[in-house]
Amino acid sequence: MKTLPLKHFFKATALALALSSSMSLFAQPTDQVVAVVDNSIILKSDLDQSIAEIKHQLETQKKTVPPAQYLQQQALDQLILRQAQLEQVKRYNIKPNEKELNEAVLKVAAQSGSKSLEAFQQKLDAIAPNTYESLRNRIGDDLAVNRLRQQMVMSRIKISDQDIENFLKTPQGQAALGNQVHVLHVRISGKQDVEKVAKEVQAALKESNDIASIDKKFTSANVKVESADMGLRNLSEIPSELAARVSPLQTGQITDLITVSDGIHILKLLERKGAEQKALVPQYQVRHILIQPSEVVSPENAKQQIDSIYNRLKAGEDFAVLASTFSNDPGSARDGGSLGWVNPGVMVPEFEAKMKSTPVGQMSAPFQSQFGWHILQVTDARQQDMTREYQERMARQILGERQFDAELDSWLREIRSNAFVEIKDPSLDRKQNK
After folding, report:
1. Which pLDDT value is given to residue 223?
2. Which residues does UniProt assign to the signal peptide (predicted)?
3. pTM over 0.90
């Protein structure tokens, strides 16, 4: 099942506040604890910043700002729920990797006109010291919370084989069976009024397929509208998160607004054709040897070991024997290093690239991935008909999306009710104010 978009990712409102130096205004010499959540605290400055963000967002959307007491309570509720999730993040030791975090920060940097992390850091820290680090930590927390949600909520979603079979017999299921679709794809991004413009674009797209005119009409100094005619292609060739949105559409229909970290997306289905081609996927039969650095094996020693094993293999020693003896991948080592038949997209990029470039019957030179040093051998290759598997995957994905929001709400309520929460400020305690 796919990874769903991060629904409450770091908002542009916080970036706007940072760039206008508002964040620094909340730092107080003598900060006050307004709430305790499990092993963490929420400070008055945290609450003030959250209130400012909510007000900024409402004002940007031209919505009425509620009374101060209500706004305070809503902001505090959000902070408590977020902190309860962060406590779970710490419990399960969930952390984004550096590459993922850098990419997320770079997207936010691009919104402010910075082309590199270094330029973005200089820009923010010129506003106030450590602003960049605070922003980066917050984005990292958001990524970790999103991963926590995916893991916890997905584990609660139960979809049986019978559920999939029943779904594939429905009209919506039939639409997901690898049909060819002709789709218009529009992305709206910018600094402000993005959702408002997206709704206007959505209305225009219902009346017209002239995406060039729509782009020109709705692009402004604050909002960028970019459209593309994706042409007629198999659903299997479209990113799975978009294919799942297109599958239930009838010709001429438009998706709801799809909000992700790089903007708001809208899709329009122009044409649908029945699938005539099978979903043939290249597969590789692979075995490998892995040497991992550890507390007792330095990176240099790991490289020396893999080079020694490579020389022994070139000298004619048996791959399976050396894999069983030396490989640090216990799952495959027990089977002579065999990984069985491997589909594209399953292995890390370095491994997949080497797998695809190694001829059948040949062995790669040592190469490095995030797991350590590898040697792989491709023993066979084939084109496998994965049509049925693809259909079932699409069905499971669509059914999972249907359940996700309900299960997320249920899980969040449980997280909140199970958290230890003590409100230190009596004016914010609902129980005392009833």
Report:
1. 92
2. 1-27
3. no
